[in-house]
Design brief:
Largest sheet: 8 strands, parallel, barrel
Oligomer: single chain
Shape: globular
Distance between the termini: 29 Å
Low-confidence stretches: none
Structural class: alpha/beta
Helix content: 25-40%
Length: about 325
């Protein structure tokens, strides 16, 4: 698998194995199948595993700990995350450190290569704070005053090699902090043909993922594309039960023209969606697979390469994108 520059970090493989599928967020699988999927990903040349405590309440990190017993193959790197929320400022460093230590215990490791803020950055006074559940929101001023300094301290302590942001917070907040110093080493950005965060969108207005990607690129921040198939909305069929008004189901309906085009071309929508994401200016694409069969399809997409510009334009047309 090809390696690509990744901001100021190590060269990264075209694909990254995400932990959502391993944590059974995207449908049922088994522990043995998850372990086998991790080994198959590494054998295929994937050199980054993107994990988080929220992926199955630690299940994804436990799987990777089982897979390698703490002894990673040469060149393999591991990330994890923390959904910090909005704690008292004097608790920030301790909560981040506690999250890291819990992840390391499950992984049977003593250091994370990248540690991401998993909660949403939100400006003070934004309507997002009026939601019934604000547990996934972190105030932008708190990030600047305490979270970012805590990340830098944890890096100096050697618990993490670098830190990053999950770019699903308020788009304007994300765009601001990507241009500030010290910058994150990496950011995870929505990368799909609908430009949709789906159920991860908690703010009003457009998501602006391509502006976030462009801002990260111009500031030398490594870019990890996420949600290539928008949690199943860009596949042939969503493989789990969701209510009719769920964001992923709404996106599935919006993607009817995309699926019709894939049928006309005789192509699997999931593979085409991954190839579309690979045509975006990202460094690596995070996979949400839960078994070796799904992984094989994604590897086939990577081998086929990014979609040509003319097919990207056709997809943009049927998906409502102007270009």
């Amino acid at each position: 698998m090809h390696l690509h520059p990744f901001g100021s970090l190590f060269p990264v493989s075209t694909l990254t194995l995400g932990g959502g599928g391993l944590g059974m967020l995207w449908g049922q699988t088994t522990e043995d199948e998850c372990v086998a999927t991790v080994h198959a990903a590494v054998a295929a040349g994937i050199n980054l595993l993107d994990l988080a405590p929220r992926y199955g309440d630690g299940k994804a990190e436990h799987i990777v700990g089982l897979a390698f017993g703490g002894r990673l193959p040469d060149g393999l790197r591991i990330t994890s995350k923390c959904n910090l929320g909005n704690p008292a400022p004097d608790r920030v460093h301790g909560l981040l450190r506690q999250s890291i230590e819990t992840s390391l215990r499950l992984l049977q490791r003593d250091r994370l290569d990248i540690f991401f803020l998993h909660s949403n950055l939100v400006p003070d006074g934004d309507p997002m704070w009026n939601a019934a559940d604000v547990s996934r929101l972190t105030p932008l001023p708190l990030f600047r005053s305490h979270v970012r300094p805590a990340f830098e301290k944890l890096k100096a302590e050697g618990l993490i090699g670098a830190w990053g942001l999950t770019g699903i917070g308020h788009p304007d907040a994300m765009i601001e902090v990507l241009a500030e110093d010290p910058k994150p080493a990496a950011v995870q950005c929505i990368a799909n043909l609908l430009d949709s965060p789906g159920g991860l969108k908690f703010y009003n207005g457009p998501a602006k993922p391509r502006t976030i990607i462009a801002t990260a690129r111009s500031n030398g921040v490594g870019i990890m594309g996420i949600r290539a198939v928008q949690a199943g909305a860009l596949t042939a069929a969503i493989d789990r039960d969701l209510p009719a008004d769920h964001p992923e189901v709404r996106d599935y309906r919006l993607a009817a023209g995309f699926r019709a085009l894939c049928a006309e071309l005789g192509e699997d929508p999931a593979i085409v969606a991954h190839r579309y994401a690979l045509a975006l200016p990202i460094d690596t694409l995070v996979l949400g697979v839960k078994n070796r069969s799904e992984l094989a399809g994604c590897i086939a997409a990577a081998k086929a390469g990014p979609l040509p510009a003319d097919l990207v334009a056709r997809i943009d047309a049927v998906s409502g994108r102007a270009g």
